[in-house]
Amino acid sequence: MSFLELAIKNLTRHKIRNCLTLIGIISAVTALYAILSFNKSFMRNLYVELNKTGIHFMVVPAGCPHEVASLVLHGSVIPKFLPETIESAIREKLGEGIEVISPILVYQLPNISKQRIDLIYGIEMENIKNLKPWWTIKGRLPEKNDEILVGYEIAEHDNLKTGQLYSLDNHGSYKVVGIIEKTSSKDDAFVFLPLKEAQRLLNKEKAITAIGIKLKEVSKINDIVDYLSKEIPGIQIVTINQILMSIASLAASARILSLSIVTIAILISTISVLNVFLMTLFERTQEIGMMRAIGASKSHVFRIIIEEAIMLTTIGGLTGILISLVLSSTIERFVKSFMPYVPQGKMIVFDPLLAISCFIFTIFLGILAGFYPAYRAMKVSPIEAIKG
């Protein structure tokens, strides 16, 4: 009988004990791979999403930069308005240096007949391609004040098709001329109107919550931001890099917490493997002594114990990685529920390098957990073991 066959036979002796240990290893590896994959995809998808914005910086009411990040990337309702003169002041200060300037108005509008709140996004429609270049639209952009563009969720919930009417309660009905294909972001839940019409519905002429700006010469962005901050009071200017740093800081805090939890789970699993093999060693003392008596060397005994530990952690490692991929959507939803912002895109994906790293790390833990029991087994005296 080979060493591998002997190791397999020994593992099957205590099925319940080894299965419970295996469950602990699988849980720890599942969490480890899922968290590492999520963190890696988070930063990659964040860079992609920021590059899609098509603007260099946002001018918003002074406030929290995390709220600003949400507004820039997905559109969030911020209950503050910029002064009416801000847009014209910016145009005057920057002049020909502006390539695109796009005022935005975002707010909530009660829809009593449908028993819900409509999320209104007012924007000059010709600027949508600059602000939302990743959108795919079925139909076209609104060209008149009585035409609207709706998000995927709105269209699905109300079973809307292009050409149909959408009622904003007592504010009137609008013709749906375009439907945004699914973006998996807050954009899916918005009703997009021409800016002037959105301002009319709110009864606030010239009201805006943000201004997106794209410069002709991006190399001058720092000088321009400093200049505007000094020249125009009551505003906050947030560049894409600042948004990135702000979100990255939040992600780092969540990453440290999640990795701490995973580390504890891995430590518990390692101790569990160590405990199982120590218990097995005490139960198999006479058996090991008999093996030594009939010619097995210390290295043979050591090898058997280590192979058992490696087999257990190998099964747990491979199964854990597979489960994290199979349950990726569920795990993503769970992790996202604890984070203030998550970029679009799949977070937990198969990464060969990451999978191999997790697998090797799991085997290393198996060797580490099995080393002491194997060392103890190697020291068993054949004569004393048989007598005992």
Fold and architecture overview:
The chain has 388 residues and is an alpha+beta fold. It contains 14 helices and ten strands. Strands 1, 2, 3, 4, 5, 6, 7, 8, 9 and 10 form a ten-stranded mixed sheet that branches. A hairpin with a 5-residue loop joins strand 6 (165-167) and strand 7 (173-180). It is elongated, with a radius of gyration of 31 Å. It starts with a helix and ends with a helix. The mean pLDDT is 79.
Beta-strand percent range: 15-25%
Number of helices: 14
Stretches with pLDDT under 50, minimum 5 residues: none
What would you report as the Rg, rounded to the nearest angstrom?
31 Å
Termini separation comes to 26 Å
Topology as H/E string?
A: HHEHHEEHEEHEEEHEHEHHHHHH
Structure class: alpha+beta
| Whole-number mean pLDDT | 79
Number of strands: 10
Helix content: 55-70%
The major beta sheet can be summarized as:
10 strands, mixed
Judging from the principal axes of the Cα atoms, what is the shape?
A: elongated
What's the structural blueprint in terms of helices and strands?
Blueprint: H1 3-11, H2 15-52, E1 57-61, H3 65-73, H4 86-94, E2 98-111, E3 116-123, H5 128-131, E4 137-139, E5 147-150, H6 152-158, E6 165-167, E7 173-180, E8 190-194, H7 195-202, E9 210-215, H8 221-231, E10 235-239, H9 240-283, H10 285-293, H11 298-326, H12 328-336, H13 352-378, H14 382-387
Parallel strand pairs: 3-8, 5-7
Antiparallel strand pairs: 1-9, 1-10, 2-3, 2-9, 4-7, 5-8, 6-7
